[in-house]
Write a structure and sequence with these properties.
Transcription termination factor 3, mitochondrial, 4 domains, 0% strand, mainly alpha, 23 helices
């Protein structure tokens, strides 16, 4: 009869032989089994073949398995099927399961109950909509490997502490889930501190992050700081930087030097606006750095075609950069009304180019009619650049009050707006920060 010792030795030999056979099988498929050396493999080649074929069935290739051969150590029934079944249940379609595993193969080692379910509950607790869970995980599958009490909790807590509304965290996660994996001390807080140092109040930053969470993904040293320095090098005043970033937050993440160089040359060549004038234009409407040059040229050609000299058009653009983003069809209608009904001079239009930014049907026509009925003669700015309530007060007054400059934003104050944007009566009771947010983030 064989002894106990003989049986153990024989068992080890059988496992070794089985391992060699399985490794040869994998090599025959093109899979390099070196990383499986310390991994427990199935006892028969049939079981390994089942794993390989199952992974291929969901869309993985031999190359994918070579990228992460440890997936071959997962049991089809104990690991792979339960995990994939849960992922499908929470919104990842069956056709996307292979792509998901390819991007995050470690998920196959996870326990559904102990690791996956708590993370999904955490996301739901942040107000991520149930139907968005699958989308969020497809974008950033690594979330499933985070500890709830670690990076995710601290990043959310910090953002709420600077003023981000808790109810907006869910939409932020859906838009840009990567911030959940960012460390507060080394990534998020330095960005906040730097932007605050430029004059942006934390309340404004909070509104910016709520609408555009991807700003948190801009690299501070490689992208944000060089772009701010670039703006200064092109002639923008440091005191205007906060306003520029508040109006167009994406500007700190663009390939800015190339865009500014191209637009500055174009403005000088085609619009006859020198670099200093270009800097003032960008301060008022930074979105111009990304505006297509053919779009910019159409309103300019329209104005020149109406008999306005090129140098006067340039002055109009510097005063009201929004002109270059207007639709020519609307400008034509407004200009026709200006000449045929209002019968005003081109000089008035050059002095108040903001005229084109107002709605012809809802503001210009009805107010002009009211003025005509009362026989009041006034400037364009006097009857257009005010709220409806202020306009009524002006109509009832016995005199035309002096026009005052609009609100300005400087290091945390209000934003300097083009003439087309005016302070509504509701806004007058709001704080400076709230007014700035209402006027800039919506852009």
């Amino acid at each position: 009869m064989p002894t106990v010792t003989w049986g153990v030795v024989q068992g080890r030999k059988e496992k070794l032989v089985s391992r060699v056979i399985i490794c040869d099988y994998l090599k025959g498929l093109g899979i390099i089994p070196d990383e499986l050396e310390h991994l427990e493999l199935p006892s028969t080649i049939e079981v390994m073949k089942e794993r390989v074929e199952f992974l291929q069935k969901i869309g993985l290739t031999i190359d994918d398995m070579n990228e992460y051969p440890l997936m071959l150590g997962c049991s089809v029934r104990k690991n792979i099927i339960p995990v994939l079944g849960y992922l499908e249940k929470i919104g990842i379609t069956r056709s996307k399961l292979g792509e998901f595993v390819k991007n995050y193969p470690q998920v196959l080692h996870a326990s559904v109950v102990v690791e996956l379910v708590p993370v999904v509950r955490f996301l739901r607790g942040l107000d991520v909509e149930r139907q968005d869970i699958g989308y969020v995980l497809m974008k950033y599958p690594e979330i499933l490997g985070f500890k709830l009490e670690g990076t995710m909790s601290t990043s959310v807590a910090y953002l709420v502490s600077i003023g981000v509304s808790p109810r907006d965290i869910g939409p932020m996660v859906t838009q840009y889930p990567y911030f959940l994996g960012m460390r507060v001390g080394t990534t998020i807080k330095p960005i906040v501190d730097y932007l605050v140092s430029l004059g942006l109040p934390k309340k404004i930053l909070a509104r910016m992050f709520e609408k555009r969470a991807y700003i948190l993904g801009y690299d501070l040293e490689e992208t944000i700081k060089p772009n701010v320095d670039c703006l200064v090098s092109f002639g923008l005043r440091r005191e205007a930087l906060a306003s520029v970033i508040a109006q167009y937050p994406q500007i700190i993440g663009l390939p800015l030097k190339a865009k500014l160089s191209s637009q500055q040359y174009f403005f000088n060549l085609k619009l006859k606006i020198d670099p200093e004038g270009f800097a003032r234009v960008i301060e008022k409407m930074p979105q111009i750095v990304s505006l297509n040059q053919s779009v910019i040229l159409k309103p300019i050609e329209f104005l020149r075609g109406r008999g306005i000299q090129a140098e006067d058009v340039a002055k109009m653009v510097i005063k009201c950069p929004q002109l270059v983003a207007l639709r020519v069809e609307l400008m034509k209608n407004s200009f026709y009304f200006f000449k045929s009904e209002m019968k005003r001079s081109l000089q008035e239009l050059m002095e108040f180019p903001e005229y084109f930014t107002y709605s012809l049907e809802s503001r210009i026509k009805p107010r002009h009619q009211r003025l005509s009925n009362k026989g009041i003669k006034c400037s364009l700015a006097w009857f257009l650049n005010c709220s409806d309530q202020r306009f009524e007060e002006r109509l009832q007054a016995d005199y035309i009050e002096t026009e005052s400059a609009g609100p300005s934003f400087c290091m945390g104050g209000k934003l300097e707006l083009p003439g087309g944007e005016i302070l509504s009566e509701e806004e007058e009771d709001e704080s400076d920060d709230e007014v700035l947010y209402r006027r800039t983030v919506s852009l």
